């Protein structure tokens, strides 16, 4: 299976996961496998301000979990580092749909953020 990062270098990779038992959004800073940590090179400040100003609770987390989300984030960061790409990667944990009052509003916040990033290129 071909990895999309191998065929084209991207400016930003955004990965989403779900933390079902929480009501806040977590922006993950690091992933860890077998004691080896990788830290994102993405500055979350503007995204934190946007999410907060849109009425959602957001935190920057140092724990991407211990299963699939952590693994995806770790492998993405490892690939970027190993291949010396200029790509930045972020991992966003959202609550389960039942813990989000307005999913359409949250989706709109992320869509506006991504549109704004695209216009800056």
List the helices and strands and how they pair.
Elements: H1 4-7, E1 12-19, E2 25-28, E3 30-33, E4 36-39, H2 45-53, E5 58-61, H3 68-82, E6 88-95, H4 103-119
Parallel strand pairs: 1-6, 2-5
Antiparallel strand pairs: 2-6, 3-4
Identify the notable features of this structure and list them briefly:
Aminopeptidase; globular; two-stranded antiparallel ribbon; 4 helices; alpha/beta; about 120 residues
Short description:
The chain is of the alpha/beta class and 121 residues long. It contains four helices and six strands, in the order H-E-E-E-E-H-E-H-E-H. The mean pLDDT is 89.
Describe this structure in words.
This protein is an alpha/beta fold and 121 residues long. It has one domain (4-119): Aminopeptidase, CATH 3.40.630. The chain is 37% helix and 26% strand. The chain is built from 4 helices and 6 strands; from the N terminus they run H-E-E-E-E-H-E-H-E-H. The strands form 2 sheets. A 4-stranded mixed β-sheet has the order 1-6-2-5. The chain has a two-stranded antiparallel sheet with strand order 3-4. It starts with a helix and ends with a helix. The mean pLDDT is 89.
Helicity level: 25-40%
Give the strand tally: 6
The averaged pLDDT comes out at 89
Query: Which structural class is indicated by helix and strand composition?
Result: alpha/beta
What is the first-to-last residue Cα distance? 29 Å
Q: Categorize the overall geometry.
A: globular
User: In percent terms, what proportion of residues is strand?
Assistant: 25-35%
Low-pLDDT segments, ≥5 res: none
- Counted up, domains total 1
* Largest sheet: spatial strand order: 1-6-2-5
Q: CATH H level: which superfamily? A: Peptidase C15, pyroglutamyl peptidase I-like
């Amino acid at each position: 299976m071909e990895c999309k990062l191998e065929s084209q270098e991207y400016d930003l990779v955004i990965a989403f996961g779900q933390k079902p038992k929480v009501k806040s959004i977590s922006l993950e800073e690091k992933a860890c496998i077998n004691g080896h940590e990788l830290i994102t090179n993405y500055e979350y400040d503007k995204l934190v301000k946007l999410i907060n100003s849109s009425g959602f609770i957001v935190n920057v987390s140092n724990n991407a979990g211990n299963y699939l989300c952590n693994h995806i984030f770790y492998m993405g960061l490892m690939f970027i580092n190993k291949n010396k790409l200029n790509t930045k990667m972020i991992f966003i944990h959202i609550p389960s749909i039942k813990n989000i009052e307005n999913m359409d509003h949250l989706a709109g916040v992320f869509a506006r953020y991504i549109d704004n990033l695209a216009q800056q290129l």
